Amino acid sequence: MAKVNKKSPDEMSFLDHLEELRWHLIRSTIAVVLIGSVAFLAKSFIFDTVIFGPSKMSFPTYKLFCDIATYLGFDSAFCADKLPFSIQSRQMSAQFSMHIWTSIWAGFILGFPYILYELWKFISPGLYEKERKHSKGFILIASLLFFMGVLFGYYVVAPLSINFLGSYQVSAEILNEFDIDSYIGTVRSAVIACGILFELPIIIFFLTKVGLITPEIMKKYRKIALVIVLILSAVITPPDVASQIIVAVPVLILYQISIYISGYVLKKDARKEQKGLKKT
């Protein structure tokens, strides 16, 4: 049987591109499902150790903040023996459903590098040879940033949010008894949101490449970005300045790094244009 040669990107029609994208999505989904299946079997570790870790005062973040507060001579809620809330399931299928969906999200997080690989395979044929050459580290850098964000969300944002929301009471008459969906949703949101947020330098790199972002624009709206970051930090952390700064500082650092990246991309493109003009 004769081997069919794969069409080049220039020869592919819109439907051909859709078919190509479909297979990339299928392979990514299969990877998520396979990794999620392993996570499904590791139920005890995923839930007791990872998911419910921030609900226990023995969690490393609480111990660290308690030690800092003790050293400075302050009383802190992080030094309590137990968080004043309980987690429960109110529906018959809730635990099984949450087990499945948590496993799928675990598959997405752990399979993120492969998902990026499939995305890269789809978009790279449309790039010039030099662009592909200079973007070889895309998958590694993007994956590292994502996992850094995931760890930041899990060890900083999630425990701060759980500690504050789990301890907050408008009246002593009200007991904090949270549904499992609500608790896991808080952890998941913190982890996924921070993972995506830490992709900011990569996003800015590509937006600068296509001409939608410049360093001047980012510098112009830096004050607005600062206010937005502080507001978000106030929403997801306890109402104290220290916690807000812990969350806000890494995001602001990423924003500043993104400005430098945007400037670097523009300078590099300008040099290429100058070399092209000299050759002609």
In short:
With 280 residues, this protein is mainly alpha-helical.
Q: Care to describe what's here?
A:
- The protein has 280 residues and is mainly α.
- The protein is built from 12 helices and 2 strands.
- A two-stranded parallel sheet has the order 1-2.
- Helix 5 (112-123) packs across helix 7.
- It starts with 13 loop residues before the first helix and ends with a helix.
Task: List the helices and strands in order.
Answer: HHHEHHHHEHHHHH
Number of contiguous helices = 12
- Uncertain spans: 1-5
Number of strands: 2
Shape: flat
Distance separating the two termini: 49 Å
Sketch the major β-sheet: 2 strands, parallel
Note the quaternary state here.
single chain
Question: What are the key terms here?
Answer:
280 residues, two-stranded parallel sheet, disordered N terminus
Strands, helices and their partners?
Blueprint: H1 14-41, H2 43-51, H3 60-72, E1 86-88, H4 94-110, H5 112-123, H6 129-134, H7 138-167, E2 177-179, H8 180-197, H9 200-209, H10 215-220, H11 222-236, H12 241-279
Parallel strand pairs: 1-2
Helix pairs in contact: 1-4, 1-5, 4-8, 5-7, 7-8, 9-12, 11-12
